[in-house]
Write a structure and sequence with these properties.
alpha+beta, 40% helix, DUF3093, DUF3093 domain-containing protein
Length: 129
């Protein structure tokens, strides 16, 4: 939105049609990118946890840790592991950290940004039974 307004402002000396075309062009280019960024989903099915485009068997999940805003910040920054699987949403302050078990997982844990970490932890515990 800001980029479109800036380009429109730069093109305004060439006329209002050029400015409007610049705003539309930026919207057409960046709109799908912003939509894809915000469309990552966390889906729990009976045997699988789907995070974005990655499917993880429920049996491979270990303990869960509900992170408040402060703890989530720590795990996003200096406590983060370079191999961890992260579903980051900068606008969501809370998260759930889930350990991954098994030698075939290179990542030690999942970091899932979610507004309802308690609900997600409860659902994961229920599906493991």
């Amino acid at each position: 939105m800001l980029a479109g307004c800036l380009l429109g402002g730069l093109l305004l000396p060439f006329g209002p049609v050029a400015a409007a075309a610049g705003v539309v062009l930026v919207g057409a280019v960046f709109g799908p990118l912003v939509h894809r960024y915000g469309s990552a989903r966390i889906v729990v099915t009976p045997g699988t946890l789907v995070v974005g485009d990655r499917a993880i068997p429920i049996d491979d999940l270990g303990t869960t840790e509900i992170l408040d805003a402060g703890e989530a910040f720590e795990w996003r920054t200096y406590k983060a592991n370079a191999y961890a699987l992260l579903l980051l949403r900068a606008y969501v302050p809370t998260a759930l950290r889930v350990e991954l078990r098994g030698p075939h997982h290179r990542a030690p844990y999942l970091y899932l940004s979610t507004r309802r970490p308690m609900n997600l932890a409860t659902i994961l515990a229920f599906t493991r039974r």
